[in-house]
Amino acid sequence: MFLSLMCEAFYLAPADTSLVESTESEDADESSGDEFYSPQSSPQGSPFQTRREYSRPTEDSSQVELHSSPIRFLDISEADGIVSQVVLLMGSGITYNPHVVHICPLDEGVHLLLMFEIGNVMVSSGLYEVFHYLNVLQSVRLQREMDEVKHTFDNLESGIKKVFEGLKKIRHIRPEVENCQRKLHSKWDFMRKKYLEYIKTTDSECLLRVEASTAPFMQDLKELLQLTCFDNKMIDIGRDAVLAVASTVKHRLSDFSSFLKVKALRNFTLGSYPLLTLN
């Protein structure tokens, strides 16, 4: 996860980033300057090997479709040189917790990552279960495996209950979240009724009603996910503290910046020099 976020930091850098230029110039002038020796070359797939690839992003159709969608989950905020993003990270067990991730540049090629848990764990985990079992339910429903349909529906209902219980525990719920909750409750009551009828009678008419109501139900789920787990307003909370921490760490690492550059670019390790110690 940390390597992925670091690659994201390099991906966000301009194509003509100074890091790439400095790397290329060092390679060209290697014979004229000091040389640094390493016991082994950087492994394939390491951040150094992939840096140039990520520094030159290419546009693809999935990204274009994502940014054109009215509901966006991957908005990236960049202010004061710090790149911030709301992500969903897996916790202990099957729980998915929303976090704000701040990528703070300390020096050329050196970044500090700060992560803060936000939101309601019960809501985010419940939404994950609902999306998962809706997908499974669609598959088993097409196969007409009624035992599996009933079992998956029970799990789906459990996930929905978890979402509603989590929303009740939010002290100050926003009007837009409350409105989305009401719409979701109404559509779920209809879907639940039709699914129970379908499980009991296997009537194709009930199945058609269920299929017709699934799309708007999914849209409300996405809206609730956006409002409760991917709210970019949470990025600004504690921003001053993030800036203060980044500034302090940058100042205290200033004496080691040259060493860190060598280690990052040349795969330099202290283990290669047993007599070298740091006090």
Automatic annotation (TrEMBL):
InterPro entries reported for this sequence: HPS1 (IPR026053)
Biased composition (Basic and acidic residues): 50-59
Comp. bias intervals (Low complexity): 34-49
Stretches for region Disordered: 20-64
Listed GO CC annotations: BLOC-3 complex
UniProt feature, compositional bias: Acidic residues: 23-33
Top-level taxon of origin: Eukaryota
Entry's Gene Ontology molecular function annotations: guanyl-nucleotide exchange factor activity
Full protein name: Uncharacterized protein
Organism: Cryptotermes secundus
Phylogenetic placement of the source organism: Eukaryota, Metazoa, Ecdysozoa, Arthropoda, Hexapoda
